[in-house]
Amino acid sequence: MRVSDIERHDTDILILGTGGAGLFAALHAGQTAPEGTKITIAVKGLIGKCGCTRMVQGGYNVALGGGDTVERHFMDTINGGKWLPDQDMAWRLCEQAVVRIRELENEVGCFFDRNPDGSLHQKAFAGQTADRTVHKGDLTGIEIINRLMEKVLASGVEKLQEHRAVGLIPTKDGSALAGVLMIDMRTGKFRLVRAKTVLMGTGGGPTMYKYHTPSGDKTMDGLAMALRAGLKLRDMEMVQFHPTGLLAGDHTRMTGTVLEEGLRGAGGQLISHAGQRFMFDFDPKGERATRDVVSRGIYAEMRKNNNPDQEGVFISMSHLGPDFVRQKFKGMVNRCADSGFDLATGKVEVVPTAHYFMGGVVVDVDTRTAMEGLYVAGEDAGGAHGSNRLGGNGVANSTVYGGIAGDTMGRDVVGMTLRDPDETVLAAELERAIYPLTQKPDLVLPLRKQLQDLMWEEVGVMRTGAGMKRGLAGIAQVSVALMDVGVDNSNLAFNLTWHDWLNLRSLCDISEVITKAGIARENSRGAHFREDFPDAGAMEDSDFTVAQMSGENVQVTREPVQFTIVRPGETVLPEDAPETLVAVP
Amino acid sequence: MSKPSITSRAHPLWLAYVLHRLSGIGLALFLPLHFLLLGQALHGAAAMDAGLQFSEMFVFKLAEFGLVFLLAVHLFGGLRLMAMEWVPWTPPQKTLAALATATSFAVACLFFMKAI
Amino acid sequence: MPTDPPFDHLKVTIDRGPDANGAQTEFEVPAYDNQTVLDVVSWIQQNADPTLSYRFACRVGMCGSCAMMVGGVPRWTCRTHISKVLDGNAVTIGPLRNLPVIKDLAVDMDPFFDKWVAAEGVHHGALTRDDPIAPINETAPARVEANAGIECINCSVCYAACDTVSGNPDYLGPAALQRAWTLLNDAKDDGRVAILDAISGTGGCHNCHSMGSCTIYCPNDLDPMSAIAGLKRETAKSFFNTSFFKKDR
Amino acid sequence: MLTLRLYMLQRITALLMAPLVLGHLAVMIYAIQGGVSAAEILGRTQGSLAWFLFYGTFVIAVSVHGAIGLRTVAHEWGGLKGPVLEGFMWGFGLILLILGGRAVWAVTFATGVNA
Ligand SMILES: Cc1cc2nc3c(=O)[nH]c(=O)nc-3n(C[C@H](O)[C@H](O)[C@H](O)COP(=O)(O)OP(=O)(O)OC[C@H]3O[C@@H](n4cnc5c(N)ncnc54)[C@H](O)[C@@H]3O)c2cc1C
Ligand code: HEM
Ligand code: SF4
Ligand code: F3S
Ligand code: FES
């Protein structure tokens, strides 16, 4: 396979990924770009059928009155992110969510659950001071993505499905993006797609942890590509764990998948291996505490246990009455039953599970990056959530900023021309992608497991400096070992093992960045908890980590948070505004 | 090695569909013969009687029975289908309707068998 | 607690699709207590045959990417416990029916989605993001009817189950037609004429023989058969008014 | 393959035939008690406008219905398409119509009967 074998393809606007960010960008670019602009979507799976936006259960945060305001949503976001969010991004998120939800209902055709009076039903996730989360049952993502997918499919964009982006190819002088190198997964052939503007909406995805919730196609490819292209990544230590992932053994993909938050909200109890409830030892709200607190409580409890046959803790619902549980949590009961567990009458083993990645590429409020022609939105972009993402802000973020990216690209594309790629970078990226095909075939899976165990143990729910240093050494080992693992090259068409290899390559690269950023942050904020530095540090002196390639190495620096809208200790809410509008259960 | 056969997807409604289709085809094939036979009347009662004589034969009896049987199956199947399509049944009603069809069908069959 | 299976390995036969001229390969896979069909397929690719191709994404029954023929029956594999489909300790797994096979267990789902769009399975509306959100009564009969089909994950299981689809390449199929019925009942949708037009043509709802396999096999307990019946009723009503004298109706 | 128009024609003819079939079957069951003879059948139907209409409708309906039905089957199971399929439908419909019409004529108004 040589550079001359790469098929060349041109378009005007290229979109990577079809989550909330990618699909919205495609729609909006179609609305703002001049007539005749060619829009192409490239995605690792099928359009709309991969990624995490589809997996959204709980819902979509948006302040729609009834006492709730954009200001209140904004303050919750800043407080939840422990003052680390980029305030301009957080503000735009909250403000535009209002427009986006109307767009979803009116233009895209989503239907969200209603109140008896016909208005949108809203509920409150933990950490919110208003009933704010719009939803469609507990399958909100399916409704959002299906409707978006239809619109995009009907819009006639060019489709490059099962095309995996493997490298961002800049221009010779490195100042701008020329195109993206991809593997057409169905044939195993390479394709360079040049575009005037490119959106990266590949959705992060912390799947380097033993237990994780995201879709299988998400393996940090985007961030790994951005890192290699020299872009700055911020908040990379911030990995959100969901407290209750299903634990069904390491031979099933079901392990790690989410058992929804509502189970605890409705009164579900967490029981230790000794048969005791334990969450009240950690927080007066018990099982109803926020995600990070419950995750740490469970993790601490798991460490006390030395029964090798039982790793996690149990969630027990049966005291609420099996019929009630079956009726209220039908989806969850069925899902447990499918893997052989009885949620309604028995107890199900759970474990904290890596859920969302707050870190990402440094962008401005219009999704532009430091590289001309490259835009980033959704889970790949850093800044909006700071150290912690509120439940319901994830899909709001991807749809709001995806739309903004589409608008921006549609306007920027005017007057831009296609750029010529740096052929040396192209050759290097090709080399990198076909490397495993030149090695002696071996199993990839054991190394992936090794990395996942390592990240879970050393860079997981609770961290220490010493642990993360061990983690770093371990990641380096896996990285090196991976280079000795080859992939059977007899047929490159739909060769999943090749892609497993490339997935692990991305995960190793970003695991290193997560760990280095974790070592650099010597305090505990939001999702990042250091047992050796349990204090949060002074909010006024908040800074965020920035990781960037420097030569062959990842360098982590720290930059002060700019409090452009509100300073710690202050609020943008009126003085007499109540602390919370949510009725205490 | 045997691949799973089509019948692995069989279920009552599917069987009803196959039955309806087969009976329809059967009717379509048999009806022209039936018409030919009746058309014998053009050549006089004698000719037709000869035909009918022929119909005393076992095979022909069987075929006549087949025609009636197919007609019954197809008729009820068709009515069932149109009821399913045009009456917005709720699921329990559907079960009832199916049961009623089945019963009436069984009764009809018995009746025809006796008649023949 | 799930109990251990009574055998220590499974006999798994996989249809290798057109590349392999329809050949089958047999694998021995270790049996575990919590194991889905997808896990079994994944085990083979990760440990025994690295060239085996298949597709999945969410692994929890939300994305509809993982459907295959399991023991001759279309199923979502990520949510199908292996014990449900074993014959003794054996099972045969093949690519989803009625769609072109790309390789092994991975099919090209484009025809399915092309038909979804052809059935006008997309929102038609005049309101914009500047308008308020319409108040809607969720208990109104039309809304109840619309909600019934809304959780479709476009997995194509119904499409694979339907013999009409296999015999009639133009037939839009149960999922696309169900989507059309949902939109027809959606008070927010203005596409009535376009939808009725789209589903009355050569590939339309009238090809359905109510064989019900769609409804039987839908993993989400949806009922496309009844949705299609709804379309037939609706078109039959409008038949006498307009359509009869138009060409090609 | 079935458009709304063909579908409606198939259903309308089916609905039309349902009572006719029941009627026909009832008559036949009654008639065959004790064996069929041509004279018996013909005696009943000869010269009767009512029976002519009864069976005439039946034949028209069944020709339309059966032709459309076989068209579906020929497409789904036989793979026929385009003009071949249309030809098949029309051909079969016409055969039924001609044979059926001849039969109805024979048992009602044909003069050859008395010869
Ligand atoms: C189980 C679960 C439940 C959740 N529930 C909620 C909730 O209730 N509320 C909420 O606000 N948020 C929730 N989230 C978070 C939310 O899903 C994400 O914040 C958001 O959907 C991310 O959108 P995105 O568009 O950035 O990425 P995604 O939707 O993940 O899309 C990423 C896309 O990029 C593609 N891609 C990846 N790599 C490549 C590559 N190399 N080349 C080409 N394409 C690539 C993927 O295939 C995919 O199409 C949940 C997440 C999970 C996993
Ligand atoms: C007695 C009254 C009849 C009724 C109520 C009836 C009803 C129906 C209906 C509703 C269909 C549509 C089936 C579908 O779409 O799946 C059908 C199909 C068909 N009918 Fe009839 N029918 C009758 C008599 C006949 C007769 C006498 C014939 C003989 C020619 C016949 C031949 C067919 C054929 C060949 C089909 C196609 C089968 C298929 O599509 O699966 N029908 N019938
Ligand atoms: S109707 Fe059911 S089987 Fe068909 S695509 Fe939708 S979810 Fe899948
Ligand atoms: S299986 Fe097919 S024939 Fe109709 S009822 Fe369902 S679409
Ligand atoms: S993998 Fe998503 S439905 Fe099975």
Automatic annotation (TrEMBL), chain A:
Any one GO molecular-function label of the UniProt entry: L-aspartate oxidase activity
Superkingdom per UniProt: Bacteria
Keyword Transcription recorded: no
Keywords: Flavoprotein, Oxidoreductase
Keyword Disulfide bond (UniProt): no
Cofactor(s) named in the record: FAD
Active site positions, chain numbering: 291 (proton acceptor)
Domain Fumarate reductase/succinate dehydrogenase flavoprotein-like C-terminal: 448-570
Domain FAD-dependent oxidoreductase 2 FAD-binding: 12-395
EC numbers for this chain: 1.4.3.16
Name recorded for this polypeptide: L-aspartate oxidase
Organism whose genome encodes this protein: Ascidiaceihabitans donghaensis
Gene from which this protein is expressed: nadB
Automatic annotation (TrEMBL), chain B:
Keyword Phosphoprotein: no
Transmembrane stretches, start-end: 14-37, 58-76, 96-113
Domain of life (superkingdom): Bacteria
CC cofactor: heme
Cellular-component GO terms for this entry: membrane
Cell compartment(s), UniProt: Membrane
Alphabetical keyword list: Heme, Iron, Membrane, Metal-binding, Transmembrane, Transmembrane helix
InterPro entries found in the cross-reference section: SdhC_prok (IPR039023), SQR/QFR_C/D (IPR034804), SuccDH_FuR_B_TM-su (IPR000701)
GO molecular function term, any single one: metal ion binding
Xref: PANTHER family: SUCCINATE DEHYDROGENASE 2 MEMBRANE SUBUNIT SDHC (PTHR41910), SUCCINATE DEHYDROGENASE HYDROPHOBIC MEMBRANE ANCHOR SUBUNIT (PTHR41910:SF1)
Function: Membrane-anchoring subunit of succinate dehydrogenase (SDH).
Name of this chain's protein: Succinate dehydrogenase cytochrome b556 subunit
Organism ancestry: Bacteria, Pseudomonadati, Pseudomonadota, Alphaproteobacteria, Rhodobacterales
TrEMBL record, chain C:
Cofactor: [4Fe-4S] cluster; [2Fe-2S] cluster; [3Fe-4S] cluster
InterPro entries: 2Fe-2S_ferredoxin-like_sf (IPR036010), 2Fe-2S_ferredoxin-type (IPR001041), 2Fe2S_fd_BS (IPR006058), Beta-grasp_dom_sf (IPR012675), Helical_ferredxn (IPR009051), SDH/FRD_Iron-Sulfur (IPR050573), Succ_DH/fum_Rdtase_Fe-S (IPR004489), Succ_DH/fum_Rdtase_N (IPR025192)
Domain 2Fe-2S ferredoxin-type residue range list: 10-97
Pathway: Carbohydrate metabolism; tricarboxylic acid cycle; fumarate from succinate (bacterial route): step 1/1
Subunit note: Part of an enzyme complex containing four subunits: a flavoprotein, an iron-sulfur, cytochrome b-556, and a hydrophobic anchor protein.
Segments traversing the membrane: none
Pfam families cross-referenced by the UniProt entry: Fer2_3 (PF13085), Fer4_17 (PF13534)
GO molecular function, one term: 4 iron, 4 sulfur cluster binding
Keyword Oxidoreductase: yes
Keywords per UniProt: 4Fe-4S, Iron, Iron-sulfur, Metal-binding, Oxidoreductase
EC category: oxidoreductase
Organism of derivation: Ascidiaceihabitans donghaensis
Lineage per the UniProt record: Bacteria, Pseudomonadati, Pseudomonadota, Alphaproteobacteria, Rhodobacterales
E.C. number: 1.3.5.1
Family membership noted in the UniProt record: Belongs to the succinate dehydrogenase/fumarate reductase iron-sulfur protein family.
The protein, known as: Succinate dehydrogenase iron-sulfur subunit
Gene Ontology biological-process entries: respiratory electron transport chain; tricarboxylic acid cycle
TrEMBL record, chain D:
InterPro entries, sorted: SQR/QFR_C/D, SuccDH_FuR_B_TM-su
Membrane spanning residue stretches: 12-32, 52-73, 85-105
GO molecular function: metal ion binding
Localization annotation: Membrane
Entry's Gene Ontology cellular component terms: membrane
Keywords: Heme, Iron, Membrane, Metal-binding, Transmembrane, Transmembrane helix
Cofactors, names only: heme
Domain of life: Bacteria
Entry function: Membrane-anchoring subunit of succinate dehydrogenase (SDH).
Protein name: Succinate dehydrogenase
Originating organism: Ascidiaceihabitans donghaensis
